[in-house]
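#structure-requests
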Amino acid sequence: MAYGLPYKGSKQAICKWLFNQLSTAKNFYDLFGGGGACTHFACLTGHYKNIYYNELNRNIYQGFKDAIAGKYLNRKEWIDREIFLKNLGKGDLYNDFVFSFGSKGKEYFCSKEKEEIEKAIFLGSMHQDYRLFEKINKIKVPEGITPAGFRKLLRDYNLRNRPKENADRINSLTALQTFEINFSNLSYYEVVIKPNSVIYCDIPYFGTDGYDFDFNYQNFYEWANRQTEIVFISEYYMPEDLFTCVATINKKCTLSLDNSAKTTEKLFIPKRQEALFKQKVITLAEAMLINNAKSRSILDSF
Protein backbone atom coordinates (compact mmCIF):
# COMPACT_ATOMS: atom_id res chain seq x y z
CA MET A 1 0.00 0.00 0.00
CA ALA A 2 1.21 3.52 -0.82
CA TYR A 3 0.76 6.40 1.61
CA GLY A 4 0.23 10.08 0.92
CA LEU A 5 0.70 11.94 -2.34
CA PRO A 6 3.28 10.96 -4.93
CA TYR A 7 5.88 13.49 -3.77
CA LYS A 8 9.66 13.93 -3.79
CA GLY A 9 11.38 12.66 -0.66
CA SER A 10 8.26 10.81 0.52
CA LYS A 11 8.67 8.41 3.45
CA GLN A 12 5.92 6.12 2.18
CA ALA A 13 8.36 3.25 1.52
CA ILE A 14 9.60 3.19 5.13
CA CYS A 15 6.51 4.25 7.08
CA LYS A 16 6.15 0.95 8.90
CA TRP A 17 9.81 1.01 10.00
CA LEU A 18 9.56 4.66 11.01
CA PHE A 19 6.48 4.27 13.19
CA ASN A 20 7.94 1.24 14.90
CA GLN A 21 10.62 3.63 16.23
CA LEU A 22 8.23 6.36 17.39
CA SER A 23 6.50 6.38 20.75
CA THR A 24 2.76 6.62 21.20
CA ALA A 25 1.18 9.82 22.50
CA LYS A 26 -2.09 11.70 22.47
CA ASN A 27 -0.94 14.00 19.66
CA PHE A 28 1.16 13.39 16.54
CA TYR A 29 2.71 16.37 14.73
CA ASP A 30 3.94 15.97 11.15
CA LEU A 31 5.64 19.38 10.96
CA PHE A 32 7.17 19.03 7.47
CA GLY A 33 4.16 17.16 6.11
CA GLY A 34 4.96 17.25 2.38
CA GLY A 35 2.90 14.63 0.57
CA GLY A 36 1.37 13.46 3.85
CA ALA A 37 2.69 9.87 3.88
CA CYS A 38 3.44 9.99 7.61
CA THR A 39 0.15 11.70 8.42
CA HIS A 40 -1.64 9.02 6.40
CA PHE A 41 0.16 6.19 8.20
CA ALA A 42 -0.29 7.82 11.63
CA CYS A 43 -4.05 7.82 11.08
CA LEU A 44 -4.06 4.11 10.28
CA THR A 45 -2.00 3.01 13.30
CA GLY A 46 -4.60 4.12 15.82
CA HIS A 47 -1.78 5.18 18.19
CA TYR A 48 -2.71 8.88 18.25
CA LYS A 49 -5.94 10.64 19.17
CA ASN A 50 -5.10 13.90 17.37
CA ILE A 51 -3.16 14.16 14.10
CA TYR A 52 -1.57 17.46 13.06
CA TYR A 53 -0.35 17.96 9.49
CA ASN A 54 1.70 21.08 8.72
CA GLU A 55 3.24 22.08 5.39
CA LEU A 56 4.77 25.43 4.45
CA ASN A 57 4.37 25.02 0.68
CA ARG A 58 0.89 26.37 0.00
CA ASN A 59 0.29 24.28 -3.14
CA ILE A 60 1.25 20.99 -1.45
CA TYR A 61 -0.73 21.86 1.67
CA GLN A 62 -3.85 22.70 -0.32
CA GLY A 63 -3.35 19.76 -2.66
CA PHE A 64 -3.23 17.28 0.22
CA LYS A 65 -6.43 18.74 1.72
CA ASP A 66 -8.16 18.73 -1.66
CA ALA A 67 -7.18 15.11 -2.33
CA ILE A 68 -8.64 13.99 1.00
CA ALA A 69 -11.81 15.95 0.20
CA GLY A 70 -12.14 13.99 -3.07
CA LYS A 71 -11.49 16.89 -5.46
CA TYR A 72 -9.59 14.70 -7.94
CA LEU A 73 -11.80 11.60 -7.87
CA ASN A 74 -13.29 12.11 -11.33
CA ARG A 75 -10.18 13.38 -13.10
CA LYS A 76 -9.27 11.04 -15.95
CA GLU A 77 -8.17 13.36 -18.74
CA TRP A 78 -4.81 13.08 -20.46
CA ILE A 79 -2.58 16.12 -19.87
CA ASP A 80 -0.16 16.79 -22.72
CA ARG A 81 3.12 18.68 -22.39
CA GLU A 82 1.71 22.02 -23.57
CA ILE A 83 -1.23 21.98 -21.16
CA PHE A 84 1.02 20.78 -18.31
CA LEU A 85 3.43 23.70 -18.75
CA LYS A 86 0.60 26.21 -19.18
CA ASN A 87 -1.07 25.19 -15.89
CA LEU A 88 2.04 24.34 -13.86
CA GLY A 89 2.11 25.97 -10.44
CA LYS A 90 -1.50 27.15 -10.52
CA GLY A 91 -2.72 24.82 -7.78
CA ASP A 92 -3.97 21.87 -9.86
CA LEU A 93 -2.47 18.82 -8.18
CA TYR A 94 -3.69 16.53 -10.96
CA ASN A 95 -1.70 18.54 -13.49
CA ASP A 96 1.39 19.25 -11.38
CA PHE A 97 2.03 15.89 -9.74
CA VAL A 98 0.23 13.22 -11.74
CA PHE A 99 2.02 14.35 -14.91
CA SER A 100 5.38 15.57 -13.61
CA PHE A 101 8.72 13.75 -13.58
CA GLY A 102 9.24 12.10 -10.21
CA SER A 103 6.05 13.87 -9.02
CA LYS A 104 8.24 16.90 -8.27
CA GLY A 105 5.89 19.40 -9.88
CA LYS A 106 8.56 20.79 -12.20
CA GLU A 107 9.13 18.95 -15.48
CA TYR A 108 6.83 16.87 -17.67
CA PHE A 109 6.97 13.18 -16.76
CA CYS A 110 8.27 11.87 -20.11
CA SER A 111 10.33 12.94 -23.13
CA LYS A 112 8.73 14.26 -26.32
CA GLU A 113 9.73 11.04 -28.07
CA LYS A 114 7.79 8.90 -25.59
CA GLU A 115 4.75 11.13 -25.18
CA GLU A 116 2.59 9.38 -27.79
CA ILE A 117 3.15 5.87 -26.41
CA GLU A 118 2.53 7.14 -22.87
CA LYS A 119 -0.73 8.67 -24.06
CA ALA A 120 -1.69 5.37 -25.71
CA ILE A 121 -1.07 3.47 -22.46
CA PHE A 122 -3.03 6.07 -20.49
CA LEU A 123 -6.05 5.98 -22.81
CA GLY A 124 -6.10 2.21 -22.64
CA SER A 125 -5.86 2.11 -18.85
CA MET A 126 -8.18 4.98 -17.99
CA HIS A 127 -10.72 4.87 -20.82
CA GLN A 128 -10.42 1.36 -22.30
CA ASP A 129 -9.62 3.05 -25.62
CA TYR A 130 -6.94 0.85 -27.22
CA ARG A 131 -6.86 2.29 -30.76
CA LEU A 132 -3.72 4.37 -30.36
CA PHE A 133 -2.00 1.62 -28.38
CA GLU A 134 -2.68 -0.92 -31.15
CA LYS A 135 -1.55 1.52 -33.85
CA ILE A 136 1.78 2.35 -32.20
CA ASN A 137 2.69 -1.10 -30.89
CA LYS A 138 1.22 -3.19 -33.72
CA ILE A 139 -0.42 -5.27 -31.00
CA LYS A 140 -4.01 -6.45 -31.17
CA VAL A 141 -5.65 -6.01 -27.77
CA PRO A 142 -8.06 -8.93 -27.21
CA GLU A 143 -11.70 -7.95 -27.50
CA GLY A 144 -13.44 -7.65 -24.16
CA ILE A 145 -10.17 -7.44 -22.23
CA THR A 146 -10.65 -6.40 -18.60
CA PRO A 147 -8.69 -3.57 -16.92
CA ALA A 148 -6.75 -6.25 -15.02
CA GLY A 149 -6.05 -8.02 -18.29
CA PHE A 150 -4.71 -4.82 -19.85
CA ARG A 151 -2.48 -4.26 -16.80
CA LYS A 152 -1.07 -7.76 -17.30
CA LEU A 153 -0.52 -7.03 -20.98
CA LEU A 154 1.46 -3.92 -20.02
CA ARG A 155 3.57 -5.96 -17.59
CA ASP A 156 4.21 -8.56 -20.28
CA TYR A 157 5.69 -5.81 -22.47
CA ASN A 158 7.49 -4.17 -19.51
CA LEU A 159 5.32 -1.05 -19.71
CA ARG A 160 3.91 1.10 -16.89
CA ASN A 161 1.23 3.76 -16.63
CA ARG A 162 2.80 6.19 -14.15
CA PRO A 163 0.10 8.90 -14.46
CA LYS A 164 -2.63 6.37 -13.60
CA GLU A 165 -0.58 5.06 -10.67
CA ASN A 166 -0.20 8.60 -9.35
CA ALA A 167 -3.89 9.42 -9.89
CA ASP A 168 -4.95 6.25 -8.06
CA ARG A 169 -2.66 7.16 -5.18
CA ILE A 170 -4.15 10.65 -4.90
CA ASN A 171 -7.68 9.26 -5.01
CA SER A 172 -6.90 6.71 -2.27
CA LEU A 173 -6.53 9.62 0.16
CA THR A 174 -10.30 10.13 0.22
CA ALA A 175 -10.37 7.24 2.72
CA LEU A 176 -8.81 9.64 5.25
CA GLN A 177 -12.07 11.59 5.43
CA THR A 178 -13.03 9.31 8.31
CA PHE A 179 -10.12 10.66 10.39
CA GLU A 180 -9.91 14.02 12.10
CA ILE A 181 -6.77 15.69 10.76
CA ASN A 182 -5.77 19.19 11.85
CA PHE A 183 -4.19 21.18 9.00
CA SER A 184 -1.84 24.16 9.13
CA ASN A 185 0.15 26.09 6.52
CA LEU A 186 2.92 27.53 8.73
CA SER A 187 6.64 27.49 9.35
CA TYR A 188 7.49 24.64 11.71
CA TYR A 189 8.38 26.99 14.57
CA GLU A 190 4.97 28.70 14.37
CA VAL A 191 3.04 25.54 15.19
CA VAL A 192 1.92 25.39 18.82
CA ILE A 193 2.83 22.00 20.30
CA LYS A 194 0.46 20.59 22.91
CA PRO A 195 1.56 18.45 25.88
CA ASN A 196 1.66 14.64 25.43
CA SER A 197 2.90 14.80 21.86
CA VAL A 198 5.27 13.18 19.41
CA ILE A 199 6.86 15.62 16.96
CA TYR A 200 8.14 14.24 13.65
CA CYS A 201 10.33 16.40 11.41
CA ASP A 202 11.19 15.28 7.87
CA ILE A 203 13.42 18.29 7.23
CA PRO A 204 15.10 19.11 3.88
CA TYR A 205 18.21 16.95 3.92
CA PHE A 206 21.46 18.86 4.22
CA GLY A 207 23.32 19.08 0.90
CA THR A 208 20.45 17.54 -1.09
CA ASP A 209 19.06 19.34 -4.12
CA GLY A 210 15.40 19.28 -5.07
CA TYR A 211 13.81 21.86 -2.77
CA ASP A 212 12.67 25.34 -3.75
CA PHE A 213 13.58 27.23 -0.59
CA ASP A 214 16.52 27.90 1.69
CA PHE A 215 16.42 26.15 5.04
CA ASN A 216 18.20 27.54 8.10
CA TYR A 217 19.62 24.42 9.74
CA GLN A 218 21.14 26.20 12.71
CA ASN A 219 17.80 27.75 13.63
CA PHE A 220 16.17 24.35 13.39
CA TYR A 221 18.83 22.74 15.61
CA GLU A 222 18.23 25.39 18.25
CA TRP A 223 14.44 25.04 17.98
CA ALA A 224 14.59 21.23 18.32
CA ASN A 225 16.72 21.48 21.44
CA ARG A 226 14.23 23.84 23.07
CA GLN A 227 11.30 21.45 22.77
CA THR A 228 9.88 19.74 25.85
CA GLU A 229 7.93 17.16 23.81
CA ILE A 230 10.00 14.46 22.13
CA VAL A 231 11.28 15.31 18.64
CA PHE A 232 12.17 12.71 15.98
CA ILE A 233 14.11 13.95 12.95
CA SER A 234 14.78 12.18 9.65
CA GLU A 235 18.14 13.09 8.10
CA TYR A 236 21.37 11.61 6.77
CA TYR A 237 23.53 13.68 9.11
CA MET A 238 23.06 15.78 12.24
CA PRO A 239 25.66 17.50 14.48
CA GLU A 240 26.92 14.82 16.88
CA ASP A 241 27.25 17.22 19.79
CA LEU A 242 23.55 18.10 19.62
CA PHE A 243 21.75 15.00 18.32
CA THR A 244 21.75 11.23 18.81
CA CYS A 245 20.95 8.69 16.11
CA VAL A 246 18.42 6.17 17.47
CA ALA A 247 17.67 4.09 14.34
CA THR A 248 18.88 3.49 10.76
CA ILE A 249 17.55 1.80 7.62
CA ASN A 250 18.81 1.43 4.04
CA LYS A 251 16.52 2.72 1.30
CA LYS A 252 16.51 3.94 -2.29
CA CYS A 253 17.22 7.63 -2.77
CA THR A 254 14.12 9.18 -4.38
CA LEU A 255 15.91 12.47 -5.11
CA SER A 256 18.67 10.76 -7.09
CA LEU A 257 18.68 10.49 -10.88
CA ASP A 258 20.05 6.98 -10.39
CA ASN A 259 17.09 4.85 -9.30
CA SER A 260 19.46 2.18 -7.96
CA ALA A 261 21.21 4.58 -5.56
CA LYS A 262 20.94 3.53 -1.92
CA THR A 263 21.14 5.71 1.15
CA THR A 264 21.09 5.12 4.89
CA GLU A 265 18.08 6.81 6.40
CA LYS A 266 18.67 7.85 10.00
CA LEU A 267 16.35 8.90 12.80
CA PHE A 268 17.68 11.39 15.36
CA ILE A 269 16.57 12.94 18.63
CA PRO A 270 18.10 15.91 20.50
CA LYS A 271 20.78 14.73 22.94
CA ARG A 272 19.05 16.48 25.79
CA GLN A 273 16.01 14.25 25.19
CA GLU A 274 17.84 10.91 25.56
CA ALA A 275 16.34 10.21 28.99
CA LEU A 276 12.87 11.16 27.71
CA PHE A 277 13.35 8.87 24.71
CA LYS A 278 14.25 5.89 26.92
CA GLN A 279 11.22 6.56 29.08
CA LYS A 280 8.95 6.75 26.01
CA VAL A 281 10.38 3.54 24.52
CA ILE A 282 9.80 1.68 27.79
CA THR A 283 6.26 3.06 27.97
CA LEU A 284 5.57 1.92 24.39
CA ALA A 285 7.08 -1.51 25.03
CA GLU A 286 4.90 -1.95 28.11
CA ALA A 287 1.84 -0.85 26.15
CA MET A 288 2.63 -3.44 23.49
CA LEU A 289 2.90 -6.18 26.11
CA ILE A 290 -0.33 -5.19 27.83
CA ASN A 291 -2.29 -4.93 24.60
CA ASN A 292 -0.09 -6.98 22.31
CA ALA A 293 -2.79 -8.45 20.08
CA LYS A 294 -4.27 -5.08 19.20
CA SER A 295 -1.14 -2.89 19.08
CA ARG A 296 1.16 -5.25 17.20
CA SER A 297 -1.45 -6.42 14.72
CA ILE A 298 -2.13 -2.84 13.66
CA LEU A 299 1.46 -2.19 12.56
CA ASP A 300 2.07 -5.70 11.25
CA SER A 301 -0.96 -5.51 8.97
CA PHE A 302 0.56 -2.76 6.79
